[in-house]
Structure formats: structure tokens, C-alpha cells
Amino acid sequence: MGTGLIGTLVSLVVGGTVAAVSVVGVVSSQTSAPSTSPGDSQAPAASVIDYGSN
Amino acid sequence: MTVDPGPASSPGAVATPAVPRRTALLLDALAVLVAVVLLGPALLPGLVLSYDMVWLPDLPVTQAGWGLVDGAPRAVPSDQVVALLDELVGGVVLQKAVLLGSLVAVGSGAHRVVRTAPAGVRAAAVVLATWNPYVVERLLLGHWTMLLAYAVLPWLHVAGRRAARGRPLPAGWLLLLPIGSLSGSAGVATALAAVLLVGVVGRAGPRRWALLVAALAAANAPWVVAGLAAPGSEPPTAAAARTAAEVFAARGPDGVPAPVAVLGLGGIWNTDVVPASLAGPWAWAWAAAVVGLLVVASRAVAGGPPVRERVAVLGLAAAGLGLGLLTWCWPAASAAVALAVPGGGLLRDGSRLAGLALPALLVGAATAAARATGATRATRAARARGARGDRRGVVLAPALVWVLPLLPVAALPDAALGVQQRLEAVAVPDDLARAADALADDDVPGAVVVLPFATYRAPAWNGGRPVLDPTPRALGASGREVVAADDLYVDGRRLPGEDVRARAVLAALALPDADARTDALLRLGVSHVVVDRGPDVADAPTELVPGLRAKPLLTTDGWDVRRLEGRAAPPLASTGRVVVLAGAWGAFAVLVAAGGLGALRGAVVSALRRNRRAHR
């Protein structure tokens, strides 16, 4: 009984925390500027488009 | 002492309790949901063009698509398969089907690998297989053929387990091999996986090994033969191979060591496609989770996978993750392989095969679930006897299991909605098709060169996102050979391509005056040029888009089509090459047909069985 209650409480706390972190993370990542913006078509173009960068 | 329970007691074995069909369907629905949330705007009308992912509304069937190319056959057989299939459903629908289908397939297969685990663990397997650094980075870099190879992994695993229990391989399993081998790297990954998951896990006998080897040879024949038969492919110099090995070696974003990134299923060479969340502590969390699951996968447990299976999946993970670590710590080795072995350059992108760790991660999850289930049972039994019992059973309370599916999302939140809208569907301008029509309508024979003679673009109509220039593929609809640039630039460092004809064009364009340049191009068989007028290439160096003696045929907002003044040299015929390529494609087609017929037969038999059961 006691251990069952502890298990449930631990589940609720951990589950709630992970769910909150997930939701906050997804929402904030979608509402903030992307870390790497796509090229600005109005900006001066690079001489040759790079395949990527290290 | 641990006891190997043998295949009969492995997850998915006959002896294990049957899993309700409704649960499987719910988990399949979860796989769809996760894939839709991940792809987001990529599923809207239009095409997604990102780095190496170049799709068109109607990709033409071309000679280059068959493998009649001078450089490395990077898009063989993928381009031709797409060109043939988009005749049925169109490129837009086909691309959605491939992107969504590959992610749904891997999630759907993943929960079948851990089918005897608690539903929460199975749901976590779905999310982990779909929502992880490997999938996100490869999606952004446009490696959709690698995602298909990744998607067939759990299905090969399930097939191997079935064979291990003495049952026949699932109907249509052969179809997994060509689906997973639509490019060179994908073919290597699928071949490794098929050997270990179907051959070793499935305890193949001599006949099945022979069938497996023959099927893998057929699945990979188009790109292997095209590469070996390419007459105009020049091996890299030692310096170029070394530079490429350094550039494409696995690495981490700022602040994350490369081994950590690789062990976390990331480590892609192009840090532009690494989500921001992987540049911090979450990268370490991913690495810890992956290593933890691999360690658990190596441990025997009653009711867990047998030793043969564990060795096979850990071997596969070691190959995938080990390659990434090797390219990071010893780039000279991958440079040496690229120099010494034809096609060895496939292995220089160190983290490309990191997805091969998936079966081991799933086995780790299954093993952990079996261990926890055993502990819980022991606790209950002890309590029933009035004893205190093993408290480990309490730690993994049933409700806590439902937290597991959220963990990958919490650790990679910016993957949602097309990785922060970086995967977005766009409309490809109609002017490209008009340019191809103008070339087709002109009766002067010869090849086409696209200027500026550079490999990548960042078109305004694609939101400024970098992509391999789609113009050469679109112009293939004209029926003309298109000579495309194949030099790559990474951080401004030039990596020379292999196509000797492209190199000759580059040399011709560098000549000092328009007449000399035009005559040199004509001698190379070039009769037309198409000049890209997009703002992204407005500042391209003049040697990549120099003046030529040419007559305009068509001028649009995006592209100009011009015919060179003079007669282009006729192309060289190569009948022998056509014959060997026809043989390779024939083998590929036979494999697809055999797999397709097998899948169809299996579907019919299964439907008849269900029907019979329903009428009982």
C-alpha cells in the first residue's frame, strides 16, 4: 500500500516534470528565432553557395 | 550467472503472450502522430528542397538517372526510381509518401521489435526511433535515402527473429532491400543490417545465405555498376581526399565533443543542420541514454533477447557508431580508404551510419523492460508471501513507464514542426519547365551547361535555404545531357568533384576570351547554356558565369536559355556500358518484382485468414 502510493507520487512528479519540460521546450523552440536562419534572399549573396560548414 | 533463454523466449517469440491487435494499431497511430508533428509544414502542398533533397514536380527519366554519368553516381538509383514512380502519383505526393512513410515505418517497426514489453515502453520505442538527432540531422541535410535505409531496420530485425523461430521469412521481405538501397551509402547500411539481422539473428542456412547475398547484390547493382563503369570519373588526389576526410568527419557543435555527439546519434559534419538543443546539455543526455541502452542490451536477462541477437545488434551499432568515431579520431584512415577503394569515399561522412544503432537500442529497451517486469513480478510474489520483496519493482511503477515516450521530445524539442519550420514545402518555379521545353524545341544537338557553374544554390523561392541546384535535373526533361558542376565548398574550402567532363567545362570557362571559351565548350559537346539569374548567385565569380558567344532562345525571370554559336562535337557512344547497366537494372527490377509479389501474396493470405476467422 505504502510503496504503491510512493510509486504513484514519484510517477506523478517525474511525469509532470518531463511533460512540462517537453511542452515548454517545444513551445519556446517554435516561438523563438531559429538557431540557423535560412539565407536572406535580400542580403548580398555569397560568391559560391557553401554545401555547409563545420 | 545469467542464462541465455534462447530464441523461443525472446521478445516476439511464439511462447510469449499474444499482443492485442488494438494495441498495435494504437501504437501505429502514435507513429503517424509523431511523424506528422515532426514533419509539420513539410507536409503542406509543395516540395521540400533541403541540401541534398532535390525533388521536382515531375522528375524526368534521363540517361543520367540510369547511371550513364561521368562522375560518381550519387543519385543512382534513387533519381530514376522517383522519376518512374512520380509518373503515377506526381512528385509532390510521392515526396510526402517517402518522408512520412519512412518515419511512420521506423516507428511502427520499432514497437514490433519490443512487442512483449509494457505498452509504455513500446510507445517510447516508437518515439525514440522517430524523434532523435539522427533522423533530424539527416532530414535537414536531405538524406532521404538514408532515412529509408533506417526505416527498414526494425522490419529486417522482426524478419530475422521470425526466421530464428524456424518460421519462414515474412512475405515481401525482399522488398525491404531495394527500398533500403536507393543510394550507395544507404545500400551499404542496408547490406550490413540485412547480413546481421536476417542472416545472423535469423540463423540462416546455406540456402538462405545464398538468397540473401544474391538479393543484396541485385539491390545494390545499379549504383555499383554505374560507379565501376563510369568512364569519366577521376579519383581524388591525396590532398583532396585528406581535405574531404577532415571536412566530412563526425563532429559536434560548439561546446560538444565529437564522441558525445556521435554517441548521441548525431555528429553530422554540417553543423548548420544541428538543432540548437543539441548544442548544450541535451547532447550529453542523448549520449548517456544511448550508451546506457547499449550497455543494457549487452546484458543477458531471463525473457530477454538471446545472445546471438544481442551480439548481432551490438555489432551493427558498433559499425555505425564506430565509423563516426573513427572518422573523427583518424581522418587519415578514411582518406586512405577513399584513395585505395573505389567508392571508399562513401564512408567519409562518419555519422551517416549512426542510425544502425537503432536495433541495439530497441534490444536495450526490451532487455530493460524484461528486467523490470521480472523485478516487479518478484516484488508482487514476495508481497503475496508477506515478505518485503525487491524494491526495484516499485521504482519502475507502471505509471512511470508512460513518461518514457516524452523523454525524446523533451530532449529535442526544436525538432517539432519541421525542425523549427526549416523543412518547408515550396512551389518550384514553372520557368524551369519552360527552360527545359525551350531546349527540347531547339533542333541543334548537344549538351547543356548550367551557369554559374556551381553545385549549390540558395534560391529566394526556396526561402534562401541551401539546396543542390535543381536546374540540371529539371533540364533533363529536354532529353539533352546536362553537364553539372560537382565541386563542393564547405566553409569556403573547395572539394574537387570526380567528373572529368565537369572539370573540363570549368577549365573552358576560365579561358581568357568569349570566343576561346565558346569554342572549348563546343569541342566538349556543349551546345547550350542555361544561366541562373537568381539573387543568390548574383555575385558568383565571373569565371563561373563568363561571357560566351551565344544567341538567346528564352528569357524568364529566373533563367536564360542560350544556344552557343557553332557546332558542338557529337557525344561518344558507349554500347558496352549500356549493356552492363541494363543487366544491373534488370537484376534490381527482378528483386523489386519478387519482393512486391511476395508482399501482395502475403497481404492476400493474411486478409483471407482474417476473413475466415471472422466467419467462424
UniProtKB/TrEMBL annotation, chain A:
Domain of life, per lineage: Bacteria
Annotated stretches, region: Disordered: 30-54
The protein's name: DUF2613 family protein
UniProtKB/TrEMBL annotation, chain B:
Superkingdom to which the source organism belongs: Bacteria
Sequence intervals crossing the membrane: 29-49, 139-159, 171-197, 209-230, 283-302, 314-341, 353-372, 393-412, 584-608
Keywords, sorted A to Z: Membrane, Transmembrane, Transmembrane helix
Name used for this protein in its record: YfhO family protein
Species for this entry: Nocardioides zeae
Organismal lineage: Bacteria, Bacillati, Actinomycetota, Actinomycetes, Propionibacteriales
